[in-house]
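User: quick one, fold this
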Amino acid sequence: MRAVLHVLPALPLLLLAAAAAAAEAAIPTPTLSLGLSAADDPARTSVVLQIFLLMTVLSLAPALLILLTSFTRIVIVLSLIRRALGTMQLPSNQIVIGLALFLTAFIMTPVWQKVNQEALQPYLEKKISGAAALERAAVPLREFMFRQTREKDLALFVDIAGLERPRGRDDIPTGVLIPAFVISEVKTAFEIGLLLYVPFLIVDMVVAAVLLSMGMMMLPPVMVSLPFKLLLFVLADGWYLLVGSLVKSFA
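Assistant:
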């Protein structure tokens, strides 16, 4: 009887151990292995490679969106006008980037329509190969970038690349055109931003001079000039003029 009483406290532990042993025996431990073997269907391997290349392109999509479209110029100008007004956090970064994205989609719609008609749809209908589709898709995009690129910037990168003097646009590689386009977009954006900055700078200078003449040296001029700058921007219908000028600058 005493032996039974000594065994009873350990009985739950024995039951749990037995259940664990039964579970280990019933459920085998999975293993993972990676390897290369001969493919029975070459088409299946081709599909896998295409998916891999597509994922690689999608990972580069943000950089392509920023560098190959009108996004760079728009977001720089919107950021500069926010600083010129003195409202450092208004509009917020989300609003600025969202507005820049929608304006970019609006401006680039004709280019994307050409890409869809001349490259994407024929490729989906299996009328052309993937390489031919890429070549056709690059044509409208190159035309857009050439229209916005300065010859001086283009000549700079042609010289850096050590290329011979091109006879036409077809002789300029896309790898040379893209950085020249980006530099031109940044310069144009700063030119527009400078023109927008000057009127608000004049308002700041006038307010600072008035406060100094009144002896209010401890009062920050920015605090007083902000309402006047907002009033000037609203009366001039600034957003209408700004967005209209930005869109027309890509015509």
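User: anything notable?
Assistant: Confidence is low (pLDDT under 50) at residues 1-8, 11-16, 22-26.
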